[in-house]
Structure formats: structure tokens, C-alpha cells
């Protein structure tokens, strides 16, 4: 795991863990996995899935996924011109 991903997971987990201080880390991870409808073993849970779930956990249902919002274009013509490299 790269250091920036480790730091990001720690930053995202800390406030969520502080909300439920009576849980240990594995209990918290199991709760998060259940929220994501993850049915495999916790060892198979990817850090990317955990990061995105923690980022989107307290957001509205219609909010855009972080990382995709920066690429969104409201105008189709502008998006097409950017994709073709004209802009």
C-alpha cells in the first residue's frame, strides 16, 4: 500500500471511529463492509472500495463520486471537443 492511500484511509476512518468509540477496528470495518453489501472476507475488501465508501458515506444519494466531478462537463459539445483534443 502506498503511503498516500494509507494516510487517506486513516484520515477517513478517524472521524467515523470516533463516532463509535466502543467498537474495535475490526468491528468498524465489518460494519462498513455490511453497509457496502460486501459479502466476502474482510481480508478481500479493497482499500479503494473502503476509501470511496467512507467518502460517500455521509453524502446525499445524488452526489457525484469524488474524482468524477472534476471530469464532468455539462455541455455535450464541450465534452466532445475536449475528448477529441481541440480544447
Automatic annotation (TrEMBL):
Listed InterPro entries: DUF1040 (IPR009383), YihD_sf (IPR038134)
Superkingdom field: Bacteria
Gene3D superfamilies listed in its UniProt record: Protein of unknown function DUF1040
Alphabetical list of Pfam families matching this protein: DUF1040
Protein name per UniProt: Protein YihD
Species whose genome carries this gene: Moritella yayanosii
Lineage: Bacteria, Pseudomonadati, Pseudomonadota, Gammaproteobacteria, Alteromonadales
